[in-house]
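RECORD TYPE: protein structure
NAME: Nicotinate-nucleotide--dimethylbenzimidazole phosphoribosyltransferase
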Amino acid sequence: MNMPSKKIQITLDKIVPVSYEKINQAQKHFDSLTKPVGSLGRLEEWGARCIAIRGVPCQKVEKKCVYLFAGDHGVVAEKVSAYPQEVTAQMVMNFLNGGAAINVLAKHMQTEVVVVDMGVNHDFKNIPGLVHRKVGRGTGNMRRGASMSRSQAEQAIEVGLELADTAKQQKIDILGTGDMGIGNTSPSSAILSVLTGTPPNKTTGRGTGIDEKTWKHKVAVIEDAVKLNRPDPEDPIDVLAKVGGFEIAGIVGLVL
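PREDICTED:
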């Protein structure tokens, strides 16, 4: 397996397991509140884990931010989506203008939405509010070849790392992720299939609401892409490069 870039490796070396002691401490605090023990279900579990990850005692989450990564995909040429590629750029503008569902939900939760152009096949020029980190104008068609080079995959991951560092400097308490890219459920399904060893017909959904005929075609496209590119499941960056997307790689970096 190839080694990741120096910046990615430094980040990986900093990752440590979550402290179960801190998880238990948080759970004890939840149990002491005036409510039936465990009555909030998974919400308590997530809350305890969040507290343990942050490494600080229970306190209110003040600053919240959703990073929305956008990128286009060459595989749309295979007619795997109900919508044309141009919709990606249109939706980016919608996000920036506050007209999408994520904007409404974020406003309700007093959460900032940051839109990042990772690889939209459109020239946004100097549109205010958009974070310009374009790695390429859309990926390659994974049914015909690799989605991107390994260096591009690492570059996209490093964008996510950079944004996470920025969020830390801004003292943001919790981050969320989102994605926009017509056709991106095809690479998502391909990645899941490769990493889990699950057949594409089990990992592939209907994305934008495609019919049965189009779904079967989509599965075949993903099968062809995996067979042609032969991504190494032991090398996640290789998988991203061969059947991934720029916005997916950006999310990887932010999560790491």
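COMMENT: Residues 20-54 form one domain.
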